[in-house]
Structure prediction request, 152 residues.
Amino acid sequence: MRTEDKVIFDALSSFEALALTIYGEARGESHAGQIAVAYVIINRSLKWRKSIKEICYQKNQFSCFNSNDPQYEKLRLMAINYNVYIGVSEKLRKCYDVAFMALSAPFESTVDDALYYRVIDYPNKWFDSAIKSGKLEKVCTIEHHEFFREVA
Prediction:
């Protein structure tokens, strides 16, 4: 996230920040896939005692908030005009519904205690190294994402 854009994203509520993150990371996934991404964020928030917004905007954690990501500018514009986009974007509304449900009425997580996920078959040296060294173990696969927990 560009420093000058931080104030734009910080103006969003936790629900809106989570919805925008789900939109950026999993808008093409089913409801189950979107819920899974939401629970990774919630799991991180609980484990690391950080707010939802701190987790969503943490540097280099969710690619959609990296300023060089192709989606970044669209998410920035959506954050500036959130009330407009929520009214016209069905996908953003669905992501908001997922965020609202996950934060308001928590239920058993579909990803257990997973803290990380990756797109299947997308090369990622950090993940490959962490898996090979036994630091991460796979919890489940939901559609195009694999979900992982830390190994104690």
Notes: The CA atoms of residues 60 and 66 lie 6 Å apart. The chain has a mean pLDDT of 94. Residues 3-111 form one domain. The chain has one domain: 3-111.
